[in-house]
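Work package 3, deliverable 3.1, input record:
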Amino acid sequence: MPFVVCMLLIAIGLFTLLVRRNLIKLVIGITIIENGVNLFLVSLGYVRNAVAPIYTYAPPGASRMVFPTPQALTLTAIVIGLATTALMLAFVVVIYRHQGTLDGGKIRELKG
Amino acid sequence: MSVVVRTIARIVLPVGLAFGAYVIMHGHLTPGGGFQGGAVVASLVALIVVTFGAERLVRAKTWFSVVEDLGALAFVALAFLGIGVTFFRNVLANSGGLFGASVPLGPNPGILNSAGTLPLMNWAVGFKVIAGLGAVVLLLALFGKGGEGEDG
Amino acid sequence: MVTHAPVLAIVIPLLGAFALPLWGKLRRELRDLWAIVVGVFTLVVALVVAVKVLGGGEVWVYTLGAASPAAAVVQGGFPIRIVLEVDALSAFMGVIALLAGIVGLVYTLQFLREEEGKTLAMSLYLLLWAGILGLVYTGDLFNFFVFFEITSIAACGLIGYRTWESRPPEAAFKTMVMYTLGGLLVLLAVGILYGEYDALNIAYISSKVTGGLLDRIALGLLLGGLLMKAGAVPAHMWAPDAYGEAPPSATILLVVNTQAAIYGLSRVVFTLFGGVLATPGVGWLIAAFGVLTIVVAALMALVQKDLGRLIAFGAVSQLGYMLLGLGVGAASLMTGAGFGQVALRGGIFHMINDAATVGLLFLLVGVVQRAAGTKELSRLGGLGHVLKAEGGLFLLGSLALAGIPPLNGFASKILIYESSFHLSPILAVLAILSSILLLAVVLRAFHSVFLGPKPSVLHVERTQWGTILAMGTLALVIVVFGLFPGFFVKHLVDPAVQALWAGRADYLAAVLGG
């Protein structure tokens, strides 16, 4: 079930990337795809009736823990996503200062 | 911003700093660690930018850049500590020295003094993230006002 | 130090990239000296890796954090830690990255002026170099994704850091969107493979992969993401912008960045899924993309008016040759036909030839732009009167790009033509026709840039020794590899080809057997 939601998020993000022309909306589209992929990664570790994988003050009587490795992978992916989003937004700000518009169709200095 | 906002910000800042330091410090015991705690403190930088204005922090730009590089260098230097066996080896864990207490298996109350180079690396990463994200927030705010901007 | 060579080759440029701005704040000469020190150390360490793996013929496995890959931390955890696994193909890519990195570093030190943001450019350059070396040395899928993203961020930073002009940030934004999308597809595939087999190590997954529906989806996603990073048609739109707007000293490393994607493709197709490729469909798909790239890029190079973008389309076209060689090799992997090995040999040899040829042409574009102040073909002309040596080098590079004997382009392209002709004659014919078209295009560019009457306004400074040294090294590589291809194929390329064609068992045994 969570995988269906992830695929839906990725599809929405891809649709945004293909259809919208505003630069900020492109960045938002990439962020939506990223969220979908991260959600997919985190949900890979799920174990039914298990608790969070923390030993400190773990609830007594808990017999199973969720797999911790996908959480580490997702954390790394979130940090990487943050860096790329920050870089893309910085470039959008610079483009806006130079060209005065955020419309991807009107920014056509580089043609061909 | 008005007096009310500035007063509350002055109260929230030390509390936020303490919480960020707590999250960084206990990364090997509870959820958290270098990046998460650094993001908490970086949001405090955003708070300062919003309430007091970005001009207050202009002098901090070089400080951010230097701390960012030092944090990354500290991280790699700590990874080099284990070069006797192989890169990234945790030589301080279970050794009895600084951060060297051994940990029993299973649920436990959490010993702060354990896990070797992990808390030290958490601090290095925490400082780097504070400096990095703080610089990004500050530069975007300054850039939006028409100040000079640089990338990176 | 020798035992830690693979990880040192990644960490030393990384350390250099972080410490460079600190030195830059103190004194500029210290910063340049630090860059030279880092370059020399990386050269030594990467050469140690190359000699030991290419000469010795064994796969070098280096575990991070423990003495051997099987030492687990707690029982029930991962049986295999993050490993760096250097086989002959990785060592070969390391040699290419080394050559390009050193040449670009020498060129950067002398060519970039201070007001162009030199500290930032050099720091990002070292970071990109570390990222490429990490990409080719790693043996772990998630680590591959992390280095994929590091190279994306560093490359886009290098393309767009000159924010005082208006074109670089636009090019950098477009490139960043394509790279990030490719990276997310790769991450999705890594997630699917992790969910199926509960491991991230390439050797371990390769031994367990079965070829079911989820595996095929993962293969498709990996191919899509890596082809986007490589810049194959139809995902090529970022390449001319990126190569055209990046500072000339960094374009050679951007080319190697693209070739690292080809490395990723070969690692995925031959090693990761090598045991289950039952049909030649995957190989045909890659070969089809290759031919499409060759033809479309050559056609689009016809209409370019900007010298940088023209050479960039030439570079994209060369990428198609590598894809064609790889695809023909993959298509004949199961049948074991002899021409598959020849195709692989041609494709892999073309990687180092392409790095040298296209690198030389881009460095020359930088010199031309500095001399004439523009890159528009309609406004350039007659530069051959003042830039005599550079004109000769441009002619050499153009002939090598088009594949004229006895230069190195011919040596690798003839292998690709021969082998793809066996698979399907149409592929070879299209490739040869596009090669002829590209020859016409670059010769026309040479004519309009260097020949003609001497222009009146010309600002030419004496080309410095570092620039000449960098370009001369690449020209030497072009000529020597063209005159003695057999020697270099035997020592550099053949071990890599064997590692792909028949070396999957060695790759697996190096991690799982030990």
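The mean pLDDT of chain C is 84.
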